[in-house]
Write a structure and sequence with these properties.
With 108 residues, this protein is α+β, with helices and mostly antiparallel strands. It has two helices and five strands.
Length: 108
């Protein structure tokens, strides 16, 4: 009696696999659209912002320094003037924001 019930349960194995894998696919889709895709977009926007930096742009670094780009040294380093005649070199990837004149944000 038990053997016949076990065989009867194993008979529908083809659709059982799809039912078992569906929650995993659904979880991956949710992670992709809620976590992975927005992070990739944010990284792409940051890379394009860093690539478009030029002399005279007012910027904010990840460390909180605010200043004006005095010179682009190379593809990795920029010289930033944080006060009159005070320049520091920063890694360009640490620049988190470009403050544009028309955004309403101003450096004091």
């Amino acid at each position: 009696m038990f053997i016949s019930e076990a065989m009867a349960q194993g008979a529908g194995g083809g659709s059982g696999f799809l039912i078992q894998i569906a929650p995993l696919v659904l979880i991956f889709a949710v992670f992709y659209f809620l976590l992975i895709r927005p992070q990739q977009k944010k990284m792409k926007d940051h890379r394009s912002m860093v690539a478009a930096l030029s002399k005279g742009d007012k910027i904010v670094t990840a460390g909180g320094l605010m200043g004006t780009i005095a010179k682009i040294e190379d593809e990795r380093i920029a010289s930033v003037e944080i006060a009159e005649n005070v320049k520091v070199k920063v890694v360009r990837s640490t620049i988190t924001e470009v403050i544009s004149e028309n955004s309403g944000k101003k450096i004091q």
